[in-house]
Amino acid sequence: MIELKQITKIYGNKKKRTTALSGLNLKVEKGEIFGVIGHSGAGKSTLIRCINLLERPSEGEVWVGGIELTGLGKRELQQQRRKIGMIFQHFNLLSSATVYDNVAFPLTLIGTPKNQIRKKVDELLSLVGLEDHRSKYPAQLSGGQKQRVGIARALASDPDVLLCDEATSALDPQTTDSILKLLLDINKRFGLTILLITHEMHVIQSICDRVAVIHEGGIVEEGPVTEVFLKPQHTVTREFINRDASGAEGEEGLRLAASVPRPTWAKLVRITFLGAKTYESVLSQVVRETGVHFAILQGTISTIKDVPYGKLTVSFEGDSGQVEQTLALLKERELDVEVIG
Amino acid sequence: MDQLDFSKIDWSEMATASGDTLQMMGFSTLFTFLIGLPLGILLYIFSKSNAPVLIWIYRVLSFIVNIVRSVPFIILIIALIPFTRMIMGVSSGVEGTIPPLVIGAAPFFARLVETALREVDRGVIEASYAMGASTAQVVRKVLLPESLPGLIAGMTITAVTLVSYTAMSGMIGGGGLGDLAIRYGYYRYETEVMIISVFFMVVLVQVLQMLGDRLVIYFTRK
């Protein structure tokens, strides 16, 4: 649905040049929610603005819905932009227009008849739950409500793609969750392709199917969220995951767990499990069979989008044969086992 | 100083002068807005442009605006006499004052328009382009409505400035309250005339300012 080919963006003039993106490739499939995560300054804002050409890439091609946007003239680009909805961190609503008029705005641009506008706007306002606020001005709304207006406005021209530029970064955690839920709902209901950028792993974990990690203008890691989240390869990815995890779950907690004195023959093991297995009694069955004892040093059971997963750091105590057998049995049951000490 | 005697005042002359001032004010304000608003919008658009040609046009326009604004109004009136005669047929009287008033005030108003447009949130403009709006649509549906309170404030300031400019038009026989105040009140020591004409001008300015402020509050949504 969206494809970026060898995108390079350089800002500035001859004297001072900054490379925001360098030779970046990205492909987003139809109907998926794709997240791009990165620190501020990594180039993620430039990346999302390159997709509807709010920023024109210095080099490379942008394809959306099978059309090369970078090859279009001004008029054709305006036409194509109507098929790409966008929501923003600071909402960017018209402060001089009511909720109703804000949502109607994209339709008035193309001269839609009044009665059709009314029908569409009514529909959208009930979708985002703002029927009662139609004649209010943005200044009278809360942040979450403003973003709902933004979403309704972005959907007014029936886009194929929705771009979310840090759409929840200015909202409190509760409001963030309700907005994410709304986005997920829209994605499921209309099959809308969503590309979002964020610096919060939580956002990626809640709604994204796939994720790309952007660092210094390039993508350093990419894949299904479950894979990237549970087996991060790049340092930056690990940083994001650890920062989001609570203390006991992150690197810090692991160091603490490893420093606790334990018998020298004990083995420190990290077990990762995904999907339905998360809720099965695999560990207890295996240790009963092999007769080792274990202590859980740290652990978490949670979900990625709607897939359950668990991460446990366990120390096994027993003779080395028993421990080896335990690890083998766990692997047999398709758990991911990693000896870390 | 003698006792003030307001009975000496020629009220019919005062009425004519008031009418002249209102006429000069009305017409020059109207034309100032008609010329200054598009000029201000152009200044804004060119200043934001990426095209080198438009940036050059901006520099030239901006330079001209600065020149007109830095020439004292009284000199502008005199310098424009031939031009005024060309387009109005006369270079004095109420008609004769309107061209210099407009030329003096339009660049000033254009700058105020440009400033008001700059105040519009960049994000909203970006969002409109993202929704497929053309530049003309952005101007009409975003920039102008979003900056309306600022534009009205600018109009108020311009109208008040024009009131004081009309006072100088006496130089070319423009008439009006300011002229009356200077000719009778100052040159002929008829303090009463000066007091009354200045008083009327103060009232006029007060009314304009109050009206402007009311409208600004009415249209402010932030």
**CATH class categorisation of the largest domain in chain A:** Alpha Beta
Topology order of chain B in helix (H) and strand (E) letters:
HHHHHHHHHH
Number of strands of chain B: 0
What is the averaged pLDDT score of chain B? 89
CATH-wise, what's the superfamily of chain B? MetI-like
CATH class of chain B: Mainly Alpha
Overview of the structural elements:
The complex is a heterodimer of chains A (341) and B (222). Chain A contains twelve helices and 14 strands. Chain A is an alpha/beta fold and 341 residues long. Chain A folds into two domains: 2-244, P-loop containing nucleotide triphosphate hydrolases (Rossmann fold, 3-Layer(aba) Sandwich), CATH 3.40.50; 251-339, ACT domain (Alpha-Beta Plaits). In chain A, the strands form three sheets. Chain A has a six-stranded mixed β-sheet with strand order 6-7-8-3-9-10, with helices on both faces. In chain A, strands 2-1-4-5 form a four-stranded antiparallel β-sheet, with helices on one face. In chain A, strand 4 and strand 5 form a beta hairpin. Chain A is elongated and about 80 Å long. Chain A starts with a strand and ends with a strand. The mean pLDDT of chain A is 89. Chain B has a single domain (13-219), classed as Orthogonal Bundle (MetI-like fold), CATH 1.10.3720.10. Chain B contains ten helices and no strands. Chain B has 222 residues and is mostly helical. Chain A binds chain B through residues 52, 54, 78-82, 84, 86, 88, 90-97, 105-106, 108-110, 137-139, 153, 157, and chain B through 121, 123-124, 126-134, 137, 141-142, 145-146, 148, 219, 221-222.
